[in-house]
Amino acid sequence: MFYTLKTIFILIRLAEIVVCEPAAFRRDDFVQITISGDEVACKKMVVAKGIAYSAMIRITSHGNGDLKIANLDRLHVYDAHGDGDLFRNWLLTIKFADFDGDGYRDLVIYGIADYYDENGEKVLTSRPIIHLYRFNPQKREFEEFFVYAPTWYDLYDKEN
Fold first, then answer.
1. From CA 47, how far away is CA 82, in angstroms rounded?
2. CB 90 within 8 Å of CB 81
3. Residue span of the structural domain in which 128 resides
């Protein structure tokens, strides 16, 4: 397989991000909303000088959670709901870092999805999940750049 220098640079930068960059959200960032039982975490994410967005994750009382930032809405990043598949440690890792060297912080979401047997007791298979969203400064929005995920997994939460 042949890789361009740009692809090799991005892969090296991704390895640095995974190891060195702090996660944007941790489980203890969430506060519970008493009325609905949902939990919410909200942070300001600076993409570049003069460009910032509010990033919010809402976890429902059913154990599913979505990330919303800029033009991206309802990205499924939290799963503690016993419906056959769960994210390991429930929350996918979310990081904002410039992975392509253009000076704008991009969005990196990754983790492991475990698929369980019918009783929810035994892991049948585990698969990595990697979603990269590159920030487009002309449009001022994030664009899907790369996806690696199991076929039974979909980052976009179409049900809620």
1. 35
2. no
3. 5-148
